[in-house]
Design goal:
Blueprint (H helix, E strand, L loop, with lengths): L1 H4 L1 E5 L3 H8 L5 E6 L7 E2 L12 E7 L8 H11 E10 L10 E2 L6 H8 L6 E2 L4 H7 L3 E6 H4 L2 H6 L9 E6 L10
Parallel strand pairs: 1-2, 1-4, 2-3, 4-5
Antiparallel strand pairs: 5-9, 6-7, 8-9
Length: 181
């Protein structure tokens, strides 16, 4: 997948991945974050400064639960992704919850911890996350990592044995308009 990406946009880059991906021959690797000193570009994911179709791939791990307008952020990712490109999105999800729980009026860190699972989260996604990504313009495949990876990797990475660690593989269609629900 990376071999064909060409240009990769990585939000909130993790040090170990940044170090590995920045050395990959033939990959134009761009890191972006609002605050991180590890990022090349200081950007707000809700209003990206990149041209339409700039990137062949996007990595977005544990970002969307922090942003004010996640729908706009998803749409921006779809906009800057090339047709036929792919994005990997990971974020906390409660799969038994039908819809995402969010309340912008909740600003108290203790209340955010109680409702959303962490003091700086502004939502906890439910089963509707794939639908939200589709509305933004992606085709979506949900992969449960615990079933897709060898057991020793699952244990080493401390993935939940119950199978609720989900990876959302999003692709940008090449020949049709975004889905609308």
């Amino acid at each position: 997948m990376l071999r064909d990406a060409g240009d990769l946009l990585h939000f909130a880059p993790e040090y170990c991945l940044r170090r590995l991906l920045s050395r990959r021959p033939g990959l134009h690797y761009v890191t972006a974050d609002r605050d991180s000193p590890l990022a090349d570009d200081r950007v707000n994911i809700e209003t990206l400064p990149y041209a339409d179709g700039s990137f062949g791939a996007i990595l977005c791990s544990h970002v969307l639960e922090h942003v004010n307008d996640d729908r706009r952020a998803m749409s921006e990712m779809a906009r800057v992704l090339k047709p036929g490109g792919w994005a990997i999105v990971m974020t906390p999800v409660e799969p038994d919850r039908d819809s995402t729980l969010e309340d912008p009026s909740v600003t108290d860190p203790g209340e955010r911890l109680r409702l959303f699972g962490q003091e700086d989260h502004v939502r906890i996604y439910g089963a509707d996350l794939a639908r939200r990504l589709r509305k933004a313009g992606f085709e979506v495949s949900v992969e449960r990592l615990v079933y897709a990876l060898p057991r020793e990797i699952v244990q080493r990475m401390r993935l939940h044995e119950e199978g609720d660690d989900e990876l959302y593989l999003c692709t940008k269609p090449t020949d049709r308009a975004p889905a609308r629900d």
